[in-house]
Design goal:
8-stranded mixed sheet, Fructose-1,6-Bisphosphatase, Chain A, domain 1, D-Maltodextrin-Binding Protein, domain 2, 5-stranded mixed sheet, binds manganese (II) ion, binds 2,5-anhydro-1,6-di-O-phosphono-D-glucitol
């Protein structure tokens, strides 16, 4: 079981995410008022997306737009809607010097008419969107960096292409049976549940810890024939006895990273999206480093877990480009170490 307990300061009252942010702001001199404002605006955007996702079956927002995004994937109407909401709201926050989205090929500048700040927001507006038409959990993933170059200069690629350990915050909003916000600013992982009757995210799990070892492995095993032998044997190993559990793991796979990661965070175990040879000339992972793997890796490590591409710590990888993809093994420390040990052989 994961251990999540309310800190003494919160006991006896329901604390909103905004109050939580302000409390942490006091504890950490690095967290400024402008940063709190940035997260506040992001939360508001997420609430607006949650409202549409919850009504998706009733509005004309299901299905595809007929377009293909920069990743070569079909764009769902809700992908586009969530992307628009985030860009519209966040460019007005005054905290950002630029943004980057899974749905946009290039860096998204902040128009001249808005004031700017030092932060960079990178997001996957709707993760798991192929699941939306069948009412399965989707989410929004975010990562926040701070620019390296002086504020008066134009933003350059190096400002954005930073390794994950430089993130100042990361998290996701899961649009599930309840809408949940899970985030870290490097002081543990905290989860909030949206109370629709008051329209606020209330602290439901303070200082989440991922179990050291789990009993669930999660992977799209339909890809087995596209993996190399070491990967196929490593995944198969979770079905045998020579693994950290000493007996077969159980299997779960939603196909939305946010949902699969959320379960892994609470129950433990391992989520894997290995390198595959679907294109034999260019073997690659599927998940994007900057808007998927790195923010989840920051959360995993802050909760006591690990995240690797098989050989490298995800948070140490310097992105070659905005949309670079990586293999991902993430979850309980002992389960991820086991995979790393096997893949190194
Ligand atoms: P997105 O909907 O943002 O394009 O991301 C989909 C990703 C991720 O959510 C999930 O883990 C993975 O795709 C599932 O891929 P497969 O369908 O290949 O299993
Ligand atoms: Mn995604
Ligand atoms: Mn997406």
């Amino acid at each position: 079981m994961s251990s999540a307990s309310a800190a003494p300061a919160y006991q006896g009252r329901q604390i909103t995410v905004t109050e939580h942010l302000l409390l942490h702001q006091k504890q950490s001199p690095a967290a400024t008022g402008i940063f709190t404002r940035l997260l506040y605006d992001l939360i508001l955007a997420a609430k607006l997306i949650a409202r549409s996702v919850n009504k998706a079956g009733l509005l004309d927002v299901l299905g595809g737009t007929g377009e293909v995004n920069v990743q070569g994937e079909n764009v769902q109407k809700l992908d586009e809607y969530a992307n628009r909401i985030l860009i519209h709201r966040m460019q007005r926050s005054g905290a950002l010097c630029c943004m980057a989205s899974e749905e946009n090929a290039d860096i998204i500048p902040i128009p001249e008419r808005f004031s700017k700040g030092d932060y960079i927001l990178i997001f996957d507006p709707l993760d798991g969107s192929s699941n939306i038409d069948v009412n399965i959990n989707v989410g929004t993933i975010f990562s926040i960096l701070r620019r390296n170059s002086p504020a008066e200069q134009d933003v350059v690629a190096d400002d954005v292409l930073q390794p994950g350990y430089k993130q100042v915050a990361a998290g996701y909003v899961l649009y599930g049976p309840s809408t949940m916000l899970v985030y870290t600013t490097g002081q543990g992982v905290h989860a909030f549940t949206l109370d629709p009757s008051v329209g606020e995210f209330l602290l439901s799990h303070a200082d989440l810890r991922i179990p050291e070892q789990g009993k669930i492995y999660s992977v799209n095993e339909g890809n087995t024939s596209f993996w190399d032998e070491a990967t196929a044997l490593t995944v198969a190993n979770f079905k045998g006895k020579a693994n950290p559990r000493g007996k077969p793991y159980t299997h779960r796979y939603v196909g939305s990273l946010v949902a699969d990661f959320h379960r892994t965070l609470f129950y433990g175990g391992i989520f894997m999206y290995p390198l595959d040879y679907k294109n034999p000339e260019h073997p690659k992972g599927k998940l994007r480093l900057m808007c998927e793997a790195a923010p989840m890796a920051f959360l995993a490590e802050q909760a006591g877990g690990l995240a690797t591409d098989g050989t490298r710590r995800i948070l140490d990888i310097v992105p070659e480009s905005l949309h670079v993809r990586v293999p991902l093994y993430i979850g309980s420390r002992k389960d991820v170490e086991h995979v790393m040990g096997r893949l190194r052989q």
